[in-house]
């Protein structure tokens, strides 16, 4: 694999993957590198695996290149796994981090600390022409706080307390967060796959 297309327009994500793949001599491209737009891909899957696969395979068929796509979100045990694949739009069609956080806290009102277990999940899918799609999954275990804390991060970070920490994900520095994040663990697996090829 000489080139890998990351199915995103998020420059931060592209930089993360660039750091990982550059040492293997793999050139990283993103959707920002193509004039021809990919139409919005409907994520119709019911799992992170299905949505990552749909994105990766759709983009791979369009550009005929190996493609990496990810799907990630928050899974809260007391909410039967919600928000799950709907994490980005949990409170409605428009992505709104504050509204999403508020909805989780509202639905967990009265739930005791011991039952507020949750995890961030990230699934990476690599689709290559004429090969089965390959997956890597990373998780970050923790619990949901009763009130938001911290200014760093985004999404559900202010209400997520990683296991073994006294600070929320939004109170950690970017370096600390990247050491324990679900995406980091998924990328560690991806690196193992790269080194075994």
From TrEMBL:
Active-site residues, as the UniProt record annotates them: 71 (proton acceptor)
Keywords: Hydrolase, Magnesium, Metal-binding, Nucleotide metabolism, Nucleotide-binding
Superkingdom, natural source: Bacteria
GO MF terms, alphabetically ordered: dITP diphosphatase activity; ITP diphosphatase activity; metal ion binding; nucleotide binding; ribonucleoside triphosphate phosphatase activity; XTP diphosphatase activity
One cellular component (GO) term of this entry: cytosol
Cofactor: Mg(2+)
Listed CDD domains: HAM1 (cd00515)
Residues involved in substrate binding: 8-13, 72, 154-157, 177, 182-183
Class of enzymatic activity (EC top level): hydrolase
GO terms of biological process kind: nucleotide metabolic process; purine nucleoside triphosphate catabolic process
EC number assigned by the record: 3.6.1.66
Record's catalysed reaction(s): XTP + H2O = XMP + diphosphate + H(+); ITP + H2O = IMP + diphosphate + H(+); dITP + H2O = dIMP + diphosphate + H(+)
Entry note: cofactor: Binds 1 Mg(2+) ion per subunit.
Signal peptide from the UniProt entry: none
Residue numbers binding Mg(2+): 42, 71
Function field: Pyrophosphatase that catalyzes the hydrolysis of nucleoside triphosphates to their monophosphate derivatives, with a high preference for the non-canonical purine nucleotides XTP (xanthosine triphosphate), dITP (deoxyinosine triphosphate) and ITP. Seems to function as a house-cleaning enzyme that removes non-canonical purine nucleotides from the nucleotide pool, thus preventing their incorporation into DNA/RNA and avoiding chromosomal lesions.
Family of the protein in this entry: Belongs to the HAM1 NTPase family.
Subunit structure: Homodimer.
Descriptive protein name: dITP/XTP pyrophosphatase
